[in-house]
Amino acid sequence: MRPPVTKAPVKQTNHKKVAASKNDAAKGKVKSSNDAKTLKHWLREMLLIREFEVRTMQAYQNRLVGGFCHIYSGQEAVAVGTIAALQDDDPIITAYRCHGHALARGMDPYYCMAELFGRFDGCAKGKGGSMHMFDREKHLYGGHAIVGAQTPLATGLAFATKYEQEVIKTSDHTRVTVCYLGDGALNQGGFHEAMNLAGVLDLPVIFVIENNGYAMGTSVARGTTLADALYRKAESYGMTGHLIEEGMDVVTVHDQFKKVVDETRKTSKPDLVEIRTYRFKGHSMSDPRKYRTHEEEEKWNKQDPIDHLSHDLIKAGELTQDEFKKMTTEIRGEIRDVVKRASEAEPPPLDELYVDVHTGNWGPFKGTTLPNMLRGDNEKTTDQNQESH
Amino acid sequence: MANLTLVQAINLALIQEMEEDDRIILLGEDVGKNGGVFRVTEGLWQRFGGDRVVDSPLAESGILGTSIGLAMAGLRPIPEIQFEGFLGPAYDQICTHAARMRTRTRGAYTVPLTIRVPVGGGIHAPELHSDSPETIYTHTPGLKVVMPASPYDAKGLLISAIRDPDPVIFFEPKRIYRAFREEVPEDEYTIPIGEARVVQEGEQITMVSWGASVIQCMNAIENCNHSVELIDLRTIAPMDMQAIEQSVKKTGRCVVVHEAPKTLGLGAEIASRIMEHCFLHLEAPVQRVAGFDTIMPYYKLELDYMPDAARITKAVEEVSAY
User: Fold this and answer.
1) Is there a catalytic annotation at residue B129?
2) In this structure, which topology does domain A29-348 adopt according to CATH?
3) Residues B168, B157 contacting (CB under 8 angstroms)
4) Quick check: A146 and B92 CB within 8 A?
5) Measured distance CA(A259)–CA(A265) in Å, rounded
6) Contact indicator for B245, B278 with CB cutoff of 8 Å
7) Sequence-ordered strand ranges (E) for B9-126
8) Would you say residue B184 has pLDDT above 80?
9) What is the architecture, at CATH level 2, of domain B197-321?
10) A384 to each of A134, B108, B196, B197, how far by Cα in Å?
């Protein structure tokens, strides 16, 4: 692991919006690098996240979701576009607005919803809640509640992949770790430490700033230096900074992010990517959104990533209105079913309170059992209990 | 057998475990080329290389966070925090992530992490370099807290900590890093986490302590007319309540000795548990000999702050005369 070579930041400005490729559309092609099947798949994933969040908000109002809840609506193109650019075993980690990443990574929406409802079937056995989405099989490392505190963990995850590949040779390929954070997380000390370490150790990790314009209720410009070019912060860590301006367009996000991922996989050097996006809802469910105007919200609503893609696909003749309607109806049914099953599922039994605090038994603690999501069909229990104190 | 100091015993344990398990990575400030601020990792960088013994930036939160990521990915990081006072910046990562990850993910992810931290006073250093914060981490479910008082225990406990599937804070009492030597087996051995050691058996008074204070207790006992049973907790969380209970039921009297401030120090918890479990056996109220409820003073007053043989003896006399 050599010290990194400092590179000047590269601003990637040659964005191509799907809407810009109207000539392609006329020929019945939306974009040559992504076939229609892929695009429809992304549309479906974004619809799924949106519908999931709509039902989550309803459920929250019906008091089925406890505590706090951060809705991903509006930012779907970021999770779907970036995760589509990754390999399945590339580790990803994010903060508390994590439903979208979990679903885009392929977590069964039932385990996600059951977690929100605090049920035993949830991905964390109903003890984590909205901010704690984990899926070990899908290499999703959370879901973390403290702003920016996930960033050094990403450095560690990337360190591990590099160590496994280069030192102990238990892995034969480069895995790229992706760490999502909001614009507000940039001002946390841990972020600086994580970036510096990743730079010094030359790790294959991409820090993705989902810049939705607001750190809770404070606009980027009011709380952060270099507000109009967050990606330039990369410079001080010897990294390359990238800007994806069209963060509401899943195709652009995917294509531009893919280039960064490919480069990182090749060079094993860290990168910082800023993606401009917008959250349609408040910071959390209890946010009155006094810090932004109706006009601003309207402006961004017009850039809805789902409308964007569906419109282009229909225009290109790759999707009919009927097909789109059918897709929407199917997803509605799927999520309605998920909500029903999750609301009928059992809460964790009381003695779960003392399970999973430590591996083994001691005092009142009762060792560890895996969540249902990770259990095989025949595997009723996977106790790893060790007799100790 | 080799005659080793506590520093040498820890160094030996690290070498042997690293040779056996290539998933172990050391990281911390100056742990590599310089061999660590107290030279605990002396020679390891030369032996295992910079990929496994990593000189990190001065960034405790980053060191801990990176270690947690490494551990979640299946490796066995051993970060060193130079002084217990520097745990402050790392506290966020320890308590929001390391301690809770298993619970938060319901066992899907674990954090097999050993955080090595020199602890306590007695080396003429100021506050933040002489504190005893073990209570804070004992009060955090999900962590194990270990503090050896001898080279033999240090090696056996450290090996247990490294092999433990959960996060362990391994406090090393810096006052006795090089204070004395002890016969330590050259082969690897483990001492179970959670088991206290009866340093000396006795009939009239139970004395409970841990870390460098154990040595002060031994000094006090040497000139004592009473038959004292000295228990070295060795592991603070989980606490070996059985050992304490057994002894107090025999003696009916107990003195707890620790360096940390008295109020809400572990002595309070131990006294409370004795009250719960041994009430009818008690002949006298449990006495606590502890640091004062102030910030650890600089070196001219440090010996006044820390429990010494004279203060311990006084408590023993009070308990026995009650």
Assistant:
1) yes
2) Rossmann fold (3.40.50)
3) no
4) yes
5) 10
6) yes
7) 24-28, 53-55, 76-80, 114-119
8) yes
9) 3-Layer(aba) Sandwich (3.40)
10) 19, 12, 25, 28
Q: What is the DSSP letter of B228?
A: E
**Which positions ≥6 away from B92 have C-beta within 8 Å?**
A146, A149, A190, B61
How many Cβ atoms from other residues are within 10 Å of residue A273's Cβ?
26
Average pLDDT, chain A: 88
Sign of CA dihedral B36, B41, B44, B48: negative
Distance CA A22, CA B134 (A): 66
The pLDDT of residue B66 is 97
At residue B321, does pLDDT exceed 80?
yes
Q: Kindly report, residue by residue over B85-101, the tens digit of the pLDDT.
A: 999 999 999 999 999 99
Token pair, residue A66, equals 């406890």
The helix or strand, by DSSP H or E, that contains position B104, with its residue range, turns out to be: helix B101-104
**Does the pLDDT of residue A31 top 60, yes or no?**
no
- Per residue, what are the HEC states of B156-201? HHHHHHHHCCCCEEEEEEHHHCCCCCEEECCCCCCCCCCCCEEEEC
Cβ partners under 8 Å of residue A139, min gap 6: A88, A89, A90, A91, A92, A105
- For chain B, how are helix, strand and coil distributed in percent, rounded to 5? 40, 20, 40
The residue of A127, A131, A138, A141 whose CB has the most chain B CBs within 10 angstroms, and thus the best one to mutate to test that interface, is A141
Please, which pLDDT band fits residue A29 given cuts at 50, 70 and 90? very low
List, in order, residues 6 or more apart from B49 with CB less than 8 Å away.
none
Chain A CB contacts of B157 under 8 Å are: none
**Chain A residue numbers touching B67 (CB-CB < 8 A):** 156
Please give the pLDDT value at position A30.
47
Instruction: State how far residue B164 is from chain A, nearest Cα, in angstroms.
Output: 9
Residues B210/B250, Cβ–Cβ less than 8 Å: no
Residues of chain B contacting A157 with CB distance shorter than 8 Å: 69-70, 72-73
Interval A292-321: pLDDT, tens: 999 999 999 999 999 999 999 999 999 999
Q: pLDDT (tens digit, 9 = 90+) per residue, A337-372?
A: 999 999 999 999 888 888 888 888 877 788 888 888
Three-state SS annotation for A310-358? HHHHHHCCCCCHHHHHHHHHHHHHHHHHHHHHHHHCCCCCHHHHHCCCC
Assign domain B2-184 one CATH number from 3.40.50.11030, 3.30.230.70, 1.20.140.150, 3.40.50.970.
3.40.50.970
The tokens describing A119, both together, are: 């049920």
- Quote the CA–CA distance of B244 and B232 in Å, as a whole number: 10
Catalytic residue among B124, B129, B226, B258: B129
Kindly report, residue by residue over B103-159, the tens digit of the pLDDT: 988 888 999 999 999 999 999 999 999 999 999 999 999 999 999 999 999 999 999
Task: Give whole-number Cα distances, B284 to A266, A331, B251, in Å.
Answer: 71, 71, 10
Domain locations along chain A = 29-348, 352-389
CB–CB contact A159 B59 (8 Å): no
Q: How many CB atoms lie within 10 A of CB A213?
A: 18
Q: Mutate which of B55, B95, B105 to test chain A, going by most A C-beta atoms within 10 A?
A: B105
Q: Residues B219-277: pLDDT tens digits?
A: 999 989 999 999 999 999 999 999 999 999 999 999 999 999 999 999 999 999 999 99
Give residues with Cβ within 8 angstroms of A79, minimum separation 6. A49, A72, A100, A101, A103, A104, A180
Pairing of strands A92-93, B76-80: unpaired
Whether A262 has a pLDDT exceeding 50, the answer reads yes
Task: Kindly list the domain boundaries of chain B, sorted by start residue.
Answer: 2-184, 197-321
Q: How confident is the model at residue A374, as a pLDDT?
A: 83
pTM exceeds 0.90, yes or no: no
